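Following the same procedure, the fold was encoded as C-alpha cells, giving this record:
***
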Amino acid sequence: LTSGFQNISHQSVSTRYPFTFSKMAEEGALYKVSILLDGYGYTDEENRYRANGTSTLITGPNNRIIVDTGSPRDKQRLLDKLKHLGHAPEEVNFVVCTHGHIDHVGNLNLFPNAVQMVSHDILQEQDYYADLPENFDKGTPYCIDGETVQVISTPGHTFSDVSVVVRSTDYGTVIVCGDLFEHEDDENVWEEYSECPEKHKESRAKVLELADWVIPGHGKMFKVNQPKR
C-alpha cells in the first residue's frame, strides 16, 4: 500500500444532491451520512487551480455532526442544503474540520451550539478548550459516540489532519477524510499539497484498511473493495 491504491479496486458513487448513504429507517442502522457541499478541484482555462472542500452531515441518535464547513462564500448554500435535509444550524451539536485550510473551515460561526474541533483544537463552549485523548497521535481516537463515531489522527496533508470514522451495521465503515484523498483517482495528486508525504502515505493506507467507503476532500464519495483485517 505504498501509494494507498495499489491492489485496491474502488468505484464511484454519484453524489446528486441530496446524497445520503444509510438505511437509517431500517432496523440496525444508527447513522446517516449526507453530502451538504460537493467538493471539487480543477485547473481552469487560465491555468489557475480552483477548488472547494466537501461538507458532510452525519445524523444519528442525539447527534447532528458536520465535517468541514466549506469556504466563507458557501454560507447560504450550506444553510439551504441543511434546511432541505430538515435541520437548523442550531441543532448541530458537533463540527469537525479535518484541517485548517479556508475551504474547510469557512462557516464555523453558523453553529453556535456545537462543540467545534479544528484539527487538534477543541472548543467545547465559548472560551473553554477541551483536551484530546492521551496518545491521540499514536492511535487513540476521540470518541463522539463510543465506537460508532470517532475522530482519528491522519497527518500528512497537514501535520494535524484528522478524519471522522462512522461505523454502520448495514454498510460497514464510512470515513470522511478531508484532503487525505483529493478525489477517487488521486494516486499521486496529493503529493503536491502534502506537508509530510511519508506520514501522508501511512494515513492513506490506514484509512483504506479501515474504510468501506471514503468521502474525499474534493471529489465524489467512493467505495473501497479490499479484504478487511
Observations:
- Helices lie at 75-84, 197-210.
- The CA atoms of residues 29 and 168 lie 6 Å apart.
- The first strand starts at residue 9 and ends at 12.
